[in-house]
Amino acid sequence: MRDHSMEQFWLSSHIAGGNAAYVEDLYESFLLNPENVSEQWRLYFEQLPQVQTKHISVLDTPHSAVRDQFAKISKMRVRTEATVAHDAQATEFERKQVRVVQLISAYRQRGHQHAKLDPLGLAKREIVPDLALQFHQLSTADLDTVFQTGSLYIGSDSATLGEILHSLESTYCGTIGAEFMHIVDTDERHWVMQRMESVRSRPDYSAAVRRQLLSELTKAEGLEKSLGSKYPGTKRFGLEGGESLIPALTEMIQRCGAYRAKEIVIGMAHRGRLNVLINILGKKPSELFAEFEGRASYQSSGDVKYHQGFSSNIMTPGGELHLALAFNPSHLEIVSPVVEGSVRARQDRRDDKTGSMVVPIVIHGDAAFAGQGVVMETFQMSQTRAYKTGGTIHIVLNNQVGFTTSLREDARSTEYCTDIAKMVQAPIFHVNGDDPEAVLFVTQMAVDYRNEFGKDVVIDLVCYRRRGHNEADEPSVTQPVMYAQIKNQETTRDLYAKKLIAEGVLTQEQDSDLVSAYRESLERGEPLVSSLVSEPNTSLFVDWTPYLNHPWDLPSDTRIDLQTLQSLAHEINQTPEGLPLQRQVGKILEDRRKMAAGALPLNWGAAETLAYATLLKAGYPVRLTGQDVGRGTFSHRHAVLHNQKDASLYVPLQHLGQDQAPFTIHDSLLSEEAVLAFEYGYATTAPTGLVIWEAQFGDFANGAQVVIDQFITSGEHKWSRLCGLTMLLPHGYEGQGPEHSSARLERFMQLCAEKNIQVCIPTTPAQVFHMIRRQAIRPLRKPLIVMSPKSLLRHKEAVSTLEELANGQFQLVIPEVDNVSPKAVRRVVLCAGKVYYELLAERRARGIKDIALVRIEQMYPFPERELLSALKEYPNLSDVVWCQEEPMNQGCWYASQHHMRRALDQLGSGLGVRYVGREASAAPAAGYMALHLKQQEALINQALEPTQ
Predict the structure, then answer these.
(1) Which residue, among 492, 468, 491, has the nearest Cα to 480 in the 3D structure?
(2) Sheet containing 457-462: order of strands
């Protein structure tokens, strides 16, 4: 439709000025999807200039100018020849006004692609056509024309195009590149616009603030130079090239403190860690020097310097604040969810619902941020009920190279390493690390955004790596051009000092004094953080004192009064009047009420939930997460009841009385690595209760192997970090194939040493009841790995009585329970898990009287004393067998046979132990039911074959 015909359309339209809002809504719908509007409207809207890019398909354009245009046209009634020329000019102006609005939107959308972000000046930026006047059918002839500024925060309602353009260039194309237009929430977008546009991204900082910035940079550079001269060629993963991180962290901590935060937990990998320890947390340089010189002492294996954690208290404008730097292995981003878990535990302890009192800060490497999948998982957790922490401040220490990999070409498929953060609509502030004032500004914005909206925010600190991946590396081998430039690049500190001297903010002599003063302080070896609190407020700490230095075999009384137990068993299986339940769930609760009355023996689900109830009533908080924990993957738990009419939830364990401890239960996102790391972090910060993660299938814990290897099984030995995390891993050979059978018991057994973890394979509801209670009640905090059953959840033999729960204890070894004469026994079959019940059934079916079955319920620490006691009952013993369902190279055999032999040696009978089970296999289990049954029959027959 041509201009004239469209004009006639408007003149004849029923649209009047009062309906301008309606027209604007049509325009918004058109921007989302052109098919949303009629053909007439679509033809008109398509004539308006639009920004279309391969990255952005939906505009965020303030449409006041468009609305005004519609209103003016709709009021036109009579036209005369004398006004045609004037109206044509007015129409052209109005259309240019729309194009100016589109230009403003283009800068907000894509200005970051034209920003000067690379301190080295090597990064090639693509031409952004959307930022050219010609793209919007404007020209330099329009620069002096005054236009309405719309939502542009420029200080007035109107300005010349030249003024508008200058404002946009200064705001969005300087040393800060902001990505925020992907955020759906209008308030958040306009908050960023206002903060940046009102000061053109360049606040007028006072001379005192600027001198303090230089002082922080001096500290950062001074430490690196000192370490480089004292310990040349020694690995330290220095911060050189990224020194702006130190003033950024200093400001972040002080600003969070001003918002009344009481704790900050920091996670970071190697790069710059020593600098953060000294210049942010206040670790004594003398202690660091001792570690470099091999004079440090460790009570355990210890870890390298750049993995160490630390904590201290800092004074801020809002009061004293506790800083904790998390221990971190070499697996880069894996510390991120650990930090989140630690933060959530601290927030829960403070009843900090908004996350304002405890703040997570995570420092990433650019290559790892783009390459490690756990980053995505951690972002995905950030707004979920079970894992949110009120927003994380992310700092990407962007060296622009990953070890030796050139990032843009090989290390990712996205424009920026931070693009993953867009999945949660986090604003991303790219900033040139050689502009300390720009770094300060985005730091302040990031803290304020987190405080205002309670969501994640990302600072992409674009810098460089002056040395190689480590100080013993020669980087020019693989990045010759980059390192030729770096060789001639002045340091961030020197560049900023020159600027301040040139502007008269300080003198050359004052600058030299700054450098000398820091060097002298460093040599004295005392803490270098002026805000460090010398006598910290201990109430800000997590008190682990009650859980230290306990012997492994510390006794624990897990008994409970029978009447109290029955009362709780009845209480947790009641529902509010009128709560409609699904039929099978109603039957499960009805059966559990019969169990509480003693009319039925207790099954697994009843005993497990009853264990939680007893702990909650006694004041022990319980947190249980995993992919299906509310119902239970195998439909046995039903701790969360679903209203069948309105889908509301009812959790009986949260209604035991006002004096009960908190019970937290959440079905998690489909993640193992990040969720397990989160729960580890939580458990290392919450010693008083029970923290449990349940895998959907035990096999799926494979996806979290890094967490198991680097934290759960080794954290205490490396870092002296206690942790009482419980892992429930469904395990059992049911003919379901190689991916639904094995929780990889052998991997945990291989990792067992120095009494680092507990590995249990309970076979009765009473056992799981006492095992869970033992984990919380006794003040010994060791990770508990449970090979949790599947078929036993409903096995008619796997039941217990209320009396066994009330008066029993967790048995490390369960001796023969059938009526077998000890003197008649010639063979003892040792086993663990569900294979016991198959052996038991077949032994009964065959009428065998000379074979005893002994269950080992705790495989590590191995109960040699208890096993020896069980074996002593059989004076005529001539054969001992270990029977397992797992293949020979898996399960417990290789890791535990020496323990069994040691017990037999003490028996003095000269007996050994032989293996019965599946042959060694590369896969965990057979994929065909027929093959599974054949293998199972063979191992049962072999275990029960007649004794000689």
Answers:
(1) 468
(2) 176-179, 428-432, 457-462, 393-398, 358-365, 263-268, 319-325, 310-316
Q: Is residue 648 part of a domain?
A: yes
What are the C-alpha distances in Å from 570 to residues 210, 260, 563, 594? 67, 45, 11, 9
Coil vs helix vs strand at 500? helix
Residue 609 sits in the same domain as residue 683: yes
Residue 822, in any domain of the structure: yes
Question: How far is the C-alpha of 694 from the C-alpha of 918, rounded, in Å?
Answer: 27
Indicate if 791 and 884 belong to the same structural domain.
no
Residue at 517: amino acid letter: A
Would you say the pTM of this structure is higher than 0.70? yes
Identify how many contiguous H helices and E strands the chain contains and give both numbers.
Answer: 31, 26
Decide which of 527, 546, 572 is a domain's last residue. Answer: 527
Do 252 and 366 share a domain, yes or no? yes
Residue 897 and residue 776 share a domain:
no
Same domain flag for 105 and 46: yes
What is the structure's pLDDT at 308? 72
For residue 694, list its beta bridge partners. Answer: 626, 728
What is the Cα–Cα distance from 892 to 588, expressed in whole angstroms? Answer: 35
Identify whether 662 is part of a domain: yes
Structure tokens at 590: 């009805």
Q: Does 415 reside within a domain? A: yes
Per-residue pLDDT of 618-643, as tens digits, reads 999 999 999 999 999 999 999 999 99
First to last CA, the chain: 101
- Looking at residue 896, which CATH number applies to its domain? 3.40.50.11610
The structure tokens listed for 407 are 């990032």
Instruction: Report the domain count for the chain.
Output: 4
Predicted confidence band of residue 815 (pLDDT cuts 50, 70, 90): very high
Cα gap 651→660, rounded to integer Å: 14
Three-state DSSP state, 827: strand
> How many residues comprise the chain?
948
Please tell me whether residues 138 and 222 are part of one structural domain: no
User: Looking at beta carbons, which pairs linking 120-126 to residues 24 or more positions away fall under 8 Å?
Assistant: 120/400, 120/464, 120/482, 120/485, 120/486, 120/489, 121/485, 122/481, 122/482, 122/485, 123/400, 123/408
Same domain, 883 and 920: yes
The proportion of the chain whose per-residue pLDDT surpasses 90, expressed as a percent, equals 72
Beta carbons of 380 and 423 less than 8 angstroms apart: yes
Structure tokens given for 556: 């624990």
Mark which of 493, 527, 561 sits at the end of a domain: 527
| 561 Rama sector, left if φ>0, alpha if ψ -120 to 50, beta otherwise | beta
Q: How many CB atoms lie within 10 A of CB 910?
A: 7
Q: What is the phi/psi pair of residue 778, to 5°?
A: -75, 140
Order the strands of the 758-760 sheet from edge to edge. Answer: 663-667, 622-626, 690-694, 726-730, 784-788, 758-760, 858-860
The DSSP element (H or E) to which 266 belongs, if any, is strand 263-268
Residue span of the structural domain in which 751 resides:
604-734+745-798
Cα–Cα distance measured from residue 77 to residue 509, given in angstroms and rounded to the nearest whole number: 75
Q: Which regions of 291-392 does DSSP assign to beta strands (E)?
A: 310-316, 319-325, 358-365
Strand, helix or coil at 408?
A: helix
pLDDT exceeds 70 at position 292: yes
- Quick one: 923 and 784 in the same domain? no
Contact yes or no for 431/439 (Cβ under 8 A): yes
**What is the average pLDDT across 898-922?**
94
